[in-house]
Amino acid sequence: MLKQINGLHHVTSLASGAQENNDFFTKVLGLRRVKKTVNFDAPNVYHLYYGDELGTPGSVMTYFPFEGAKGGRAGTGEVSTTSFTIPKGTIPAWKERLATFNVAGLSEDTRFGENRLLFRGPDGDAFALVEGEDDRAPWIGNGVGEQTAIRGFHSAAMRLADEGASAELLRFMGYEEIDQQGAISRFAVPGGNGADVIDLETVSAPSAGQGAGSVHHIAFSVDNRDAQLEVRKALMDTGYDVTPVIDRDYFWAIYFRTPGGVLFEIATNEPGFDRDEDTAHLGEALKLPDQHAHLREVLEQKYLSPIKD
C-alpha cells in the first residue's frame, strides 16, 4: 500500500465558455483565479485554475473552456460530483447567495451525517458544499466573507458500473474504506490534506459521454517528484499503464486510466503557482509554457478572447 498520496491535488473539467466559467467560480463561489494559461496539448484553449490564495493543492478547480462545446452525458465511468468544504451552519447563507445568482439545481441533503447543499455549474456540472470542521485558510477577496468562504475540496464522487476494482485501487493508493451508505462507499486518506475523501457509487446506467460540464480527470497530491516516481513505479509494477512524467510548469504530472474508466493523475505539490507570478498577482497575466511562447500573438489575437474580471 502506498503512503505518498495526501488526497486530492486538483480536479479538471470541461466548459463551453471561458468568461461564464470565470464569473461563476470567482464572482459566485468567491474563489481566486490563480492561473490563466493554456491547455498545453491544445494551446488555442485556455486552462483556468481557481482556488485559495496560493492555489494550495486540495483547493484547485481547473477548466478547459472549449468555446461552444456541447454538454456531456451523465453516466458511469466518471466523476459525478465535486464537493467543497464550508463552515458548519453556513448552508442557509450559501443557499441565499446562490439563489441570488440564479444558480441551478439547488437542493439539500445529508450524506454520511454531513449536511450538503447541491447545485449545478454553468454547464450542468454537479457540485456540493459540505458543512464541516476545516482549519484551512480561505480566499476572501471576491465578496465572500471569511466566516462562510470555501475552504477547499471536501471530496470527489465517482459513479461506476462496478466499484470493486476501483475500490481495490484506492486501497492500494493509501485510502481506507471508512463508511457505507446504500450503494455508496466512502474512502479517506488517514491524516490527509483535508481534500482526502473519495466516494464510490455503484449504479446501473450507460457509460458517460464527455462534454462541457464533465470532469476530465482528477489529480492526487504527492509532496515532490521523488514521491511521484515511487508511486509511478508501484502502479506500473501492479500492471497500470502510466505515462512518463510530464512537466506542467506548476507541477509534474503522471496519468493512468482506472478500471472504472476515470482518468487519474498524480501531481506534485512543487513548484506551485507562484513560480512565474508574484503571489499578489496570481492569475492576472496570460502565462504560456516555453513550447508555446512563440504563439502568444496569434493566440491572443485569434483564439483567446480577453477575460473580464
CATH class: Alpha Beta
The helix content, as a percent range, equals: 10-25%
**How many domain regions?**
1
In the CATH hierarchy, what is the architecture at level 2?
Roll
Which structural class should the secondary elements be placed in? Answer: alpha+beta
The quaternary organization reads as single chain
Average pLDDT number: 98
Give helix and strand order, one letter per element, not per position.
EHEEEEHEEEEHEEEEHEEEH
**Radius of gyration, Cα only, in angstroms?**
18 Å
Give the strand order, joined by hyphens, for the main sheet.
2-3-4-1-13-16-15-14
Beta-strand percentage? 35-45%
Number of helices: 5
Poorly predicted runs: none
The dominant shape is globular
> Could you state the CATH homologous superfamily?
2,3-Dihydroxybiphenyl 1,2-Dioxygenase, domain 1
Quantity of strands, as a count: 16
Distance between the termini: 45 Å
Major β-sheet profile: 8 strands, mixed
CATH topology: 2,3-Dihydroxybiphenyl 1,2-Dioxygenase, domain 1
Write the layout of secondary structure elements.
Blueprint: E1 7-15, H1 18-28, E2 32-39, E3 42-51, E4 60-65, E5 78-86, H2 91-100, E6 107-111, E7 114-120, E8 126-131, E9 152-160, H3 164-172, E10 176-181, E11 184-188, E12 197-202, E13 215-222, H4 225-237, E14 246-247, E15 251-257, E16 263-271, H5 296-303
Parallel strand pairs: 1-4, 5-8, 9-12, 13-16
Antiparallel strand pairs: 1-13, 2-3, 3-4, 5-9, 6-7, 7-8, 10-11, 11-12, 14-15, 15-16
